[in-house]
Specification:
- The protein is an alpha/beta fold.
- The chain has two domains: about 190 residues, FAD/NAD(P)-binding domain; about 110 residues, FAD/NAD(P)-binding domain.
- About 25% of the residues lie in helices and about 25% in strands.
- Strands 1, 2, 5, 6, 7, 8 and 19 form a seven-stranded mixed beta sheet that branches.
- The longest helix has 23 residues.
- It is elongated and about 70 Å long.
- The relative contact order is 0.17.
- Keywords: Disulfide bond, FAD, Flavoprotein, Oxidoreductase, Redox-active center.
- InterPro entries: FAD/NAD-bd_sf, FAD/NAD-binding_dom, Ferredoxin-NADP_redctase_2, Pyr_nucl-diS_OxRdtase_2_AS, Thioredox_Rdtase.
- It comes from Caldivirga maquilingensis (strain ATCC 700844 / DSM 13496 / JCM 10307 / IC-167).
- Pfam families: Pyr_redox_2.
- This is Thioredoxin reductase.
Length: about 350
């Protein structure tokens, strides 16, 4: 994903979203072939392929598009030289809707197993029974965990540059991080802010070379190397950040109007552990090349799996893994239940 131009996109299309109770009522007493948890590129790709394989399914997600919907310009998804994140999500949703796959806006509270079937219970209390489950929940944004971060959240502290960049027109802002997301956010913010500081704890960036070149050539951007944020200060809104050099320990105060946290993400480990999934040392779901987990009938795809290289979690790889997960679920169902199973 990349950004670096004036963000002009349509809003995410949320027409036709099913209400929790309506979906549950329609599917009451039915055994679905698969329940897909997560509506990002992996989950929506899995939904599209599941439908094409003739699998009865429902998608349960907190939001359609996941992190893609928060992206600025996407320039690395095949078929689109340049498209905004929200517009790409609309394309994804439109494709899935073509196959009449219900998409439920909700969160999953628990998954239980009985007689080789899965019962998926949502926070709203609805229950869905299925033969397989595809987990594509992605990651959640990491926080700095410093004094003032929660206090000024929404008052200068942001985790989404494409969402909030227009609020900082003619302001001074900072971005924390050194990867692709931090770089693309900094570039996007130059379209609005008068000055953008990129704060990174190391002496070199992890971002792709093309991003690094753009950062260094942009006169609005100043990179502050070997530095971490220790505290965020202000009154009713954010006014400054207390920074500390990682090499000398020196403290300094940086006056800013806003700060964007882009220090990566982490998987929802607690949710995975409750299910009994095998995880790697970083909390990502261990899967094989066919996206199979240690639990028969449960598959996983996208940013939540260990198979995806850290530092290279891409829209296109997530979509590919979603397709593989659906294919594996299809083969499992075909072998275990046959074509004439009740739908």
């Amino acid at each position: 994903m990349s950004s670096g131009g004036l963000l002009t996109s349509t809003m995410l299309n949320t027409t036709g979203l099913e209400l929790s109770g309506e979906v549950a009522e329609k599917l009451k007493g039915k055994v679905l072939d698969t329940v897909i948890i997560g509506g990002g590129p992996a989950g929506l790709s899995a939904a599209m392929y599941a439908a094409r394989f003739g699998l009865s399914t429902v998608v349960i997600t907190e939001e359609i598009g996941g992190q893609v919907g928060k992206a600025g310009w996407v320039e690395d998804y095949l078929g689109y030289v340049r498209i905004t994140g929200p517009d790409l999500v609309n394309k994804f949703e439109e494709h899935v809707r073509y196959y009449n796959v219900p998409i439920l806006i909700d969160s999953v509270e628990r998954i239980t197993i009985s007689n080789d079937l899965f019962k998926v219970t949502t926070v709203s209390g609805d229950e869905f029974t299925s033969r397989t489950v595809i987990i594509a929940v992605g990651e959640r944004r990491r926080k700095l965990n410093v004094p003032g971060e929660d206090k000024y959240s929404g008052k200068g502290v942001s985790y989404c540059a494409p969402c909030d960049a227009p609020l900082f027109k003619d302001k001074v802002v900072a971005v924390v991080g050194g990867g692709d997301s931090a770089a693309s956010s900094a570039l996007l913010l130059t379209e609005y802010a008068t000055k953008v500081y990129l704060i990174h704890r190391r002496s070199s960036l992890r971002a792709q070379p093309i991003y690094q070149d753009l950062l260094l050539k942009n006169s609005k951007i100043t990179i502050i190397w070997n530095t971490v944020v220790k505290e965020l200060k202000g009154d009713k809104v954010l006014k400054s950040a207390i920074l500390q050099r990682t090499d000398t320990g020196e403290l300094m105060e940086l006056p800013i109007d806003g700060i964007f946290i882009e220090i990566g993400a982490e998987p929802p480990v607690e949710f995975f552990k409750v299910i009994g999934l095998d995880l790697d040392k970083n909390g990502y779901i261990n899967v094989n090349t066919m996206m199979e987990t240690n639990i028969k009938g449960i598959y996983a795809a996208g940013d939540c799996v260990s198979l995806t290289p850290r530092g290279f979690r891409q829209i296109i790889t997530a979509a590919a893994q979603g397709a593989l997960a659906a294919y594996s679920a299809y083969n499992y169902i075909l072998t275990k239940y046959g074509q004439n199973r009740e739908k």
